Amino acid sequence: MIAQASGIDIRAAGLFENLDTNRCQPSYESDMSDEGEAGMGLVAQQEAKSEDNQSETSSDLLNRSGSWHMEFILRVSDTKTVVKASDNIFRVIYDLCERSPVLKGENPWMQTFELEFFVESGPSATTTEAYPLVSNVQTDSIEIGSSGATVVRLLRMLYDLLRRTPETTALINIAPFLLSFETRLAFFQATCFGYSRNINYWQTRARSHLHETGSRSSDNIQIPLGHIQRQKVRISRRHMLESALKMLDLYGTSKSILEVEYYDEVGSGVGPTLEFYTTISRCLQERELGLWRDERTINECKSKYVYAPHGLFPAPLSPKQDPASDKQNRSIDTLPPSDRIIQLFKFTGHLIAKGLIDGRILDIPLHAAFWTAVQHHLQSSLIPSSINAWSWNQIESVDAPLAKSLHYLQAFVDAKSALYMRTDLSPAQKQAESASLRHPVDQSTVDDLALDFTLPGFPEIELRPGGAEIPVTINNVHTYIDLVVHWTMFSGIQAQVSAFCEGFDRVLSSRSLLMFTADELCCLVGHTGADDAYWTATAVQNSISVEQGLLMSSPEVGMFIEFLVSLDKTERRQFLQFATGASRLPLGGFSALHPPLRLAPRPVASPLQPDDYLPSVMTCMNLIKLPKYSSLAVFKQRWKQVMEEGQQSFHLS
């Protein structure tokens, strides 16, 4: 149906219910759950063909005639055209604009079109007219204009690419190194985010470009073509994780953009939503949840959160699951521990996918080895493989204390291998001497360690059947090392990885993750690594703007830049969460913030002085209001006060 091709999903039930009226206009905002309804920003209308048919209902029409069809008319300004089923919607829109004396030469993407439709009895008129791709089309023809020629050239390239979509996608997934990260990211957005978000994204860029160049064409932009519905949800801060689980379950799979508000707070929009993603990301890192490996023991650190300096990696989970027939209807707190962990990993994948498609800044520093495991899981579903390669560097980055212990045991394996390489000993002598091998550092034997075949730190997980009763000896210590690594890096996290992919698939295809490297995925969802380059005086100065009478040469602007440069990593996160709602910068640093970071003066009411005021922010606009402090010391003291005390709440100042 042409309506669907043009970006409108006309619901039959709602349409026929309103056929007895002369003119109806469905609510565009209230019925936009599908991508098809939000794509072109058109206004759908229905007119009766004649005055005599105004009182005739759809049922009368269908009862009177055994068959029926729909006709469409596209109208802009005073120009209209009939849309046939075989028409390409862009061709119709372009031709319509070219025939209109007002719109000729204008950008068709910036116009608002009116689609009228009628229900007629009888079969639709068949047409054999087609528009094959002619190989000799002159794309630089003056007759179609420069903008039209550009469109034709782009359509020709898209036509060639679309004929090879499976091959193109497979090439990107198999050999992502052939294309730059920026190109693959653009491909990911174009193929996975849906046309409404893509049209909205490109139109926003066009509007921004027109605004920067001062073009008057920007004043002609009316209704965005890629309008997307926003779903606002209000939650309680006292039950953040539980509320987030329920919220994503109810609204996380819809095509609308999710926005979060909090009870008893006036803040709304981007700021509170980014703060929600940051807070939930932090909640998922709590030690008591048991989701991740922790390089500190309980005695070493009483922190509420796990310590994973190289990134979050799942703690091993036994494949033995407690049977529970009503898992879907039970609260997360009432599930058995293993089931609760699986549900939380499914939620994590769902949260990350929703954050990516909504353009939210995520702060879940997953380990590169976790993303490698995810990609291996996805590839194994296509090409079954039982090969699980590992390296000592991987083990050290995942769990340094465990790697140190395994290195200690590896010394026994190396000593035994050296012994069996000797040619001056008989097999019986080698066997006898291997039983008494001692560690070169402390002269202990393997038997002195009293190890069994259970996973270190997780005695409930047996590395082999009956492992709790099998001692580790000089003859099987190499097998013990291999099984510990295998359970740590592969078998012990298989269920979590599968659940993560299942949650991710609720919003985006997890196969799309194959087009990125593990390190690139880390950057996309929170593990930024070294970002000191974004916090230099030059980078900050080039990324901010001033308004409302403030100048780049103003003293408070200089203090602001000097203050940012002096922050350590913890203070940077505090500043970003207070100023933007997210605790980290997007890819590209301050210059990638949207809207850009802006500074404005904060008014002072007499008899108070600027030093009596605290700075304030509008997180949705990335606008910071700076009092004119008397010194840098006062500036730093006031800012550190709001960074520590002005978190977890949004109010009017």
From TrEMBL:
<dbReference type="GO" id="GO:0016607">
    <property type="term" value="C:nuclear speck"/>
</dbReference>
<dbReference type="InterPro" id="IPR045322">
    <property type="entry name" value="HECTD1/TRIP12-like"/>
</dbReference>
<dbReference type="GO" id="GO:0000209">
    <property type="term" value="P:protein polyubiquitination"/>
</dbReference>
<dbReference type="InterPro" id="IPR000569">
    <property type="entry name" value="HECT_dom"/>
</dbReference>
<feature type="domain" description="HECT">
    <location>
        <begin position="271"/>
        <end position="653"/>
    </location>
</feature>
<keyword id="KW-0833">Ubl conjugation pathway</keyword>
<feature type="active site" description="Glycyl thioester intermediate">
    <location>
        <position position="620"/>
    </location>
</feature>
<dbReference type="InterPro" id="IPR035983">
    <property type="entry name" value="Hect_E3_ubiquitin_ligase"/>
</dbReference>
<dbReference type="GO" id="GO:0061630">
    <property type="term" value="F:ubiquitin protein ligase activity"/>
</dbReference>
<keyword id="KW-0808">Transferase</keyword>
<protein>
    <submittedName>
        <fullName>Ubiquitin fusion degradation protein 4</fullName>
        <ecNumber>2.3.2.26</ecNumber>
    </submittedName>
</protein>
<dbReference type="GO" id="GO:0043161">
    <property type="term" value="P:proteasome-mediated ubiquitin-dependent protein catabolic process"/>
</dbReference>
<keyword id="KW-0012">Acyltransferase</keyword>
<dbReference type="Pfam" id="PF00632">
    <property type="entry name" value="HECT"/>
</dbReference>
